[in-house]
Hints:
The protein is of the alpha/beta class. It has 28 helices and 17 strands. β8 and β9 (about 430-435) form a beta hairpin.
Amino acid sequence: MENNKKYLKLLAQKYPTKQAVSSEIINLSAICNLPKGTEHFMSDIHGEYEAFCHILNNCSGVIHEKVDLLFRDTLSNVERQEICTLIYYPKEKLEMLHKECELPEEWYRMMLGNLIEVAKLLSSKYTRSKVRKAMPKEFAYIIDELLHVQKDEDDNQVRYHKVILDTILNIHNGDEFIIALANLIKRLAVDHLHIVGDIFDRGPCADMILDLLMEHHSLDIEWGNHDILWMGAACGNKASIANVIRNNLKYNNTRILENGYGISLRNIALFGEKTYKDKEPMDAALKAISVILFKLEEQIICRHPEYEMNERLLLSKINLNDFTIKTANSNLNNKNTIIANTDIKNNYNKNDTDTVSDIPCNSDCNPTELLYKLSDTDLPTINPDNPLALTEQENAIMDELQAAFIGSNRLQKHIKFLYEKGSMYKIFNNNLLYHGCVPLDEYGNFDGITLDGVVYQGKKYLDYADKMARLAYLDNDNENALDFMWFLWAGHKSPLCGRVIKTFERSMINDENTWHEPTNPYYRFYHTEKTCNMILHEFGLFSPESHIINGHTPVKTIEGESPIRANGKLLVIDGGFSKAYHETTGIAGYTLIFNSHGMRIKAHHPFESVYKALRDNKDIDSESEIVYTASPRILVKDTENGKQIRDEISDLKMLLGSDVVN
């Protein structure tokens, strides 16, 4: 009781009178009965700035739908599309129109009127206070007046608002006002944005995407495997750094490193040219960083037998006399794989077994190792007596690159943002969001890793991974945490990876049978409702309306795959933005819209270009599929924010009934 009284006294400082308390209760109760705001889910953006920017601007088609709803019977398709393009790219579209001709006053008057109608429709589900806060400050008063015009007997307000528009046009402020209205419309169309992982790699402009996200009014990020790779690199993990550089060299993406983050690749390029003289400069740099990468990764594996990745110790298996290697052709769970050089293993410590851990064998198993000829026999930097050791020059290059990643101000700013807004998973409005998987064993039970005698599985495992990722950022000298960042990228039991990465085989062996990358059993079991419910319950979600929102794996629509799994309990929204995936998927991926009416998944066709969108008012073609329809309509009181508001109302009612306020 004493603690309650202290709390009520503190609350009374904000609401000092009974009338103030009563007014706030009325206000909060009204808010609870507004429709829930629209949530927009995107995933696997992979540096494709233009496509991402367009999907963000059109809110996965929400704005187009609202424009059609308002003007389908009064405006042509061309006219409606021009309104949409103006909302998506107001500044750029106006510049293009001005170059073509002088825009007449009537055009401005018509377009401003149309934009005000769209803004009115979208603002109807929010409080006037919230809408006002979303407005550009320099136009807030004027927009507020225009959005709330009321028809009266003498048309006083109509005349008042006509004078406002006349004045805007007379002082040639139309462009600025259109831009302000377009930005408000986009802000109101989506109340909250979810990025379900993988902003980085493949495409060239992840840095520009992060700049855009940092300006967004409300969002969260669930880290993807490519995000955690860059986060590990920015924390100083050398294996992560080598992977980042290799990925960007492979996809001809060095712009982001050199121009975006000021990280020079000059020395690795010079070293590659000098060491691998028979290759083109970029191929030589790729080869140089690949060999360094193999060494660094295997050093981590040797330091951490608990990662259960001994079968990936391949450098010590190379016979440098005839350039052959013995390895399984596609095997994760091979109990018979023998580490060829026990001395090398012991040099990197701490592994007291010669065989891979005893894991149940799946259908991919091949219990025998086969002998393969290496496709690349030019390996001058590998020491037969100590194949995992970097040469003096390789060490110097990695020290320099480590300093460059840690010292890049822009990269560190972006990584700080990822830590502030991001996490391994997110529970939001009864849905569970994560990028990769919740690791399962061959029998469909939760799987994980054992560290210092503690078994980490399910939610406990993802919480541990989140804690270690933050520790790596806060303490760059913690080698265990830094190594774990690499494990999250590449470990076959990592919740962000979920497969055996075969970079070595794809680089060094021509036989494609060795390239197959077995995936975690999660990707078989997540088709069943029973498994999805098991995962949801593990995270405390028991509502029949709860869903798992998953990214990471491109949906092969061209082969008949559906993004909706397990009778609608799990939705795969790999955005498919990366052009490298379009031939595999057949489309440009999926996004998700969750509003007061229910949940819809949106399938998108490839985006052509911003220029074509501006010139031809060309939008991304999308198809919508309803996941479920909410009945009754979902209100604010049904959301997580609504629960907090109801708690506030309860506290205020307690204050109202006390003797603390007058």
